[in-house]
């Protein structure tokens, strides 16, 4: 004969409610650090407006507008690094844009912020030389016939207001950024050249 287990009762005489296996915190979940652009969608094609104007490419070489949200507490500045890991350079990829010391109060970059004359930068921000040989945005320009290259826009939230990157190579600047990063958000665009 089966025996019935007695129900658990609280001190009030009513059946006790089962406790959840894990306690839930009443604290708000922090917003996720996100990077987006109205000029291209995540994993979507980058337009000719952003494509490099040189090396056989006929784009306008205008840096895209970027927006971000959800930066973590403790962010003192931002850095933006744009890299093509698919470039045929023997494994190094290609640095297309590096902007450091973006103020912590910023929530985006205007279209064409990457002008090489640095006239459209946020106050205090600086650009590092790219693999094109100078500072500023250098748009996509993969070899003709290559599969679509991936252009990784990575925004870093940093624990310092300023990094001294004067004279630094792209790789050294990237090393310094990664050493001070507390969070990162990535947006990837693609581009293939048919002719």
> What is the number of strand segments?
11
Low-confidence stretches: 6-11, 16-25
| Portion of residues within helices | under 10%
Rounded to the nearest angstrom, the distance between the terminal CA atoms is: 83 Å
Instruction: Please give the CATH class.
Output: Alpha Beta
CATH H level: which superfamily?
Answer: PEBP-like
Bin the strand percentage: 25-35%
Number of helices: 1
Rg, alpha carbons: 24 Å
Sequence of secondary-structure elements: EEEEEEEEEEHE
CATH architectural group: Alpha-Beta Complex
Structural class: mainly beta
Query: The biggest beta sheet, please?
Result: 6 strands, mixed
Nearest-integer average pLDDT:
89
Q: What sort of overall outline do the alpha carbons produce when their principal axes are compared?
A: globular
CATH topology: Phosphatidylethanolamine-binding Protein
Biggest sheet: strands side by side, in what order? 2-11-10-6-7-9
Integer count of domains:
1
Q: What this model shows, in words?
A:
With 195 residues, the chain is mainly beta. It has one domain (34-191): Phosphatidylethanolamine-binding Protein. The protein has one helix and eleven strands; from the N terminus they run ββββββββββαβ. The strands form three sheets. A six-stranded mixed β-sheet has the order 2-11-10-6-7-9, with helices on one face. Strand 3 (53-54) and strand 4 form a beta hairpin. The protein is globular, with a radius of gyration of 24 Å. The termini are far apart. Mean pLDDT is 89; it is low at 6-11 and 16-25.
């Amino acid at each position: 004969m089966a025996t019935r287990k007695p129900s658990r009762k609280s001190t009030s005489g009513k059946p006790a409610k089962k406790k959840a296996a894990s306690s839930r915190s009443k604290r708000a979940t922090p917003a996720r650090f996100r990077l987006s652009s109205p000029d291209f969608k995540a994993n979507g094609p980058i337009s000719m407006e952003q494509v490099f104007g040189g090396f056989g490419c006929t784009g306008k070489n205008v840096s895209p507008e970027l927006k971000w949200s959800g930066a973590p507490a403790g962010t003192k500045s931002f850095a933006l690094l744009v890299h093509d890991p698919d470039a045929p350079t023997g494994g190094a990829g290609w640095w297309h844009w590096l902007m450091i010391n973006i103020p912590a109060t910023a929530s985006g970059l205007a279209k064409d912020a990457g002008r090489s004359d640095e006239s459209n930068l946020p106050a205090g921000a600086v650009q590092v030389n790219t693999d094109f040989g100078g500072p500023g945005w250098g748009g996509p320009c993969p070899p003709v016939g290559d599969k679509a290259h991936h252009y990784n826009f990575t925004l870093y939230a940093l624990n310092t207001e300023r990094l001294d990157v004067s004279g630094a190579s792209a790789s050294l600047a990237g090393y310094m950024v990664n050493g001070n990063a507390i969070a990162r958000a990535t947006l990837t665009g693609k581009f293939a050249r048919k002719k």
